[in-house]
Q: What sequence folds into this?
């Protein structure tokens, strides 16, 4: 097909003068068209299901709209309502608490596991793979499983504790324990997955670096602290940033395991957005909460980037 | 081997086995429970295997409740969503990586900016748009927002396609192959690792996705496993035999997928990590 235009005798080529003026040869123009054609479905999806909704959510956050009445512009009152009546501040604190329970522990454990399993051998390889299995598990289904494992009377944990004479707490029904249990479920699911990024980071460290330090007589601890850890910064950044973004958006496990309770002890931002939008049909307030969450995630991500970029060059593109 | 080295090695094996146990026991406990009658779950020690395995719980959820529907819907949505995401992302990624066209950089930066948008931010407007279009409570609603691919998949594939040597593609162009021909005969075979990665990511996402199907559907005929399980769990609280059997219906296919593709899944993590 592409050959046809070139095969024609020069005289038969349509309007060569015009083309020279545009400086776009036919083959190249054809390629441009092909590119737009290839891009079209994806671009349509991004525009309609991502860009327009993002713009729409900002607009909605300044409107009162319950889909029954006509929308009305209300200024910042959704934002004010979100904090005054809907407990936005509490939800932000709860979300941040979840993040704190989750990410530091997960990062340290993932790094520890990677250090432990960063060696060759069939046995280690099998264990490594088993650690990643939970990554595929449906969070909702796992939430149900954890709910049973941590059930007050008949659950696995409390019957085991009973054996050694301890009466376990009510876990998910207790305001203090509910959030740690949900965080534990999340760590269990993703720590093996995050370990893989540290393993990839460890594999990228050239052995010569360690050889040099061995000659200098550095201890194993010093080697870890002064060589391994700094060189792992890119992996660390990835694990912490994606972990943080994920934990600020936690929903599935919370919805199933506690539904935000007891009381509002585990009502994270996403839970509050869902309740406002799809239980209360206050779409304006829910949009305002979405915008707040969006900005919080953006700020936290940027802070982490700045913190980690001090030493490591982090390449995005 | 000295005594000390032997001890260290034994300790290492024990620690690793303990770690593996942490990740496997929730599966094993729930398998035990799903094959027990309710009375046995409540009476006996939860971690013990059933005195005799019974399929009753699975028969109940498939024949008396809607798990056959949920399973079918989840499978259908996952397949459609995965094919669409992988295909459309590959096309877009090829254009970004391999064709010079006006506006390329600007559009690509737009995609990168969209990477930063958390999923939840679009939920409320998406629901209102779908509802206005009369698409909530239809199959369309379940996969339409995801079937055209995600900026992330496009980004991942573009990074990979850029590593294909330019000479190969130039040579194909000189041989008179059009862009679709190059894509099919040159890029497709070379891009298999990243296609597999994108497929795995899409399947995991499609199968486990919860918030959007929860919002977009409210009838048992249309619901997917995640939503079905969540509703079932709140309606049949404490009926652990049924609830856990339902959860296993969602968990086991992913375990099988993992068993078959574990090498690719582990590699795909490295691939997606490397390109971020």
A:
């Amino acid at each position: 097909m592409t050959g046809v235009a070139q095969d024609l005798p020069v005289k038969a080529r349509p309007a060569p003068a015009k083309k020279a003026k545009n400086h776009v040869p036919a083959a190249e123009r054809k390629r441009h068209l092909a590119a737009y054609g290839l891009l079209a479905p994806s671009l349509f999806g991004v525009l309609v299901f991502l860009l327009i909704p993002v713009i729409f959510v900002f607009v909605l956050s300044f409107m009162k709209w319950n889909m029954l009445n006509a929308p009305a512009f209300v200024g910042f009152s959704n934002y004010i309502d979100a904090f005054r009546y809907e407990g936005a501040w509490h939800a932000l604190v709860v979300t941040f608490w979840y993040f704190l329970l989750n990410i530091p522990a997960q990062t340290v454990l993932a790094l520890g596991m990677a250090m432990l399993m960063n060696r060759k051998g069939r046995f280690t390889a099998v264990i490594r793979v088993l650690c990643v299995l939970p990554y595929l598990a449906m969070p909702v289904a796992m939430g149900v499983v954890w709910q049973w494992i941590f059930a007050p009377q008949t659950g696995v944990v409390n019957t085991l504790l009973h054996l050694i004479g301890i009466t376990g707490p009510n876990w998910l029904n207790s305001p203090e324990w509910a959030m740690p249990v949900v965080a534990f479920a999340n760590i269990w699911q993703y720590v093996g997955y995050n370990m893989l990024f540290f393993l990839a980071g460890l594999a990228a460290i050239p052995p010569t670096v360690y050889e040099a330090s061995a000659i200098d007589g550095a201890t194993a601890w010093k080697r870890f602290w002064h060589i391994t850890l700094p060189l792992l910064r890119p992996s660390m950044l990835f694990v912490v940033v994606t972990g943080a973004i994920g934990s600020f958006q936690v929903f599935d496990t919370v919805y199933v395991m506690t539904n935000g309770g007891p009381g509002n002890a585990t009502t994270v931002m996403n839970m509050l957005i869902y309740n406002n939008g799809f239980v209360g049909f206050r779409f304006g307030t829910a949009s305002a909460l979405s915008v707040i969450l969006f900005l919080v995630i953006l700020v936290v991500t940027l802070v982490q980037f700045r913190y980690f970029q001090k030493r490591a060059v982090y390449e995005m593109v | 081997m000295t005594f000390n080295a032997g001890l260290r090695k034994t300790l290492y094996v024990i620690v690793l086995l303990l770690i593996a146990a942490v990740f496997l026991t929730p599966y094993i406990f729930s398998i035990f429970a799903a094959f027990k009658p309710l009375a046995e779950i409540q009476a006996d020690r939860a971690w013990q295997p059933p005195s005799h395995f019974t399929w009753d719980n699975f028969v109940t959820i498939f024949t008396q409740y809607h798990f056959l529907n949920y399973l079918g819907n989840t499978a259908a949505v996952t397949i459609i969503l995965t094919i669409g995401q992988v295909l459309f992302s590959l096309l877009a990624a090829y254009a970004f990586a391999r064709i010079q066209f006006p506006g390329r950089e600007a559009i690509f930066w737009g995609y990168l900016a969209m990477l930063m948008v958390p999923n939840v931010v679009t939920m409320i407007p998406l629901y209102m748009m779908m509802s206005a279009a009369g698409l909530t409570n239809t199959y369309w609603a379940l996969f339409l927002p995801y079937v055209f691919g995600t900026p992330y998949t496009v980004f991942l594939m573009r990074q990979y396609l850029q590593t294909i040597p330019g000479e190969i593609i130039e040579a194909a162009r000189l041989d008179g192959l059009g862009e679709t021909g190059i894509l099919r005969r040159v890029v497709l075979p070379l891009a298999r690792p990243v296609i597999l990665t994108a497929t795995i990511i899409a399947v995991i996402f499609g199968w486990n996705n919860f918030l959007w199907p929860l919002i977009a559907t409210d009838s048992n005929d249309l619901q997917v496993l995640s939503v079905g399980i969540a509703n079932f769990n709140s309606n049949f609280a404490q009926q652990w035999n049924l609830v856990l059997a339902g959860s296993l219906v969602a968990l086991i296919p992913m375990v099988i997928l993992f068993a078959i593709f574990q090498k690719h899944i582990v590699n795909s993590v490295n691939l997606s990590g490397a390109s971020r």
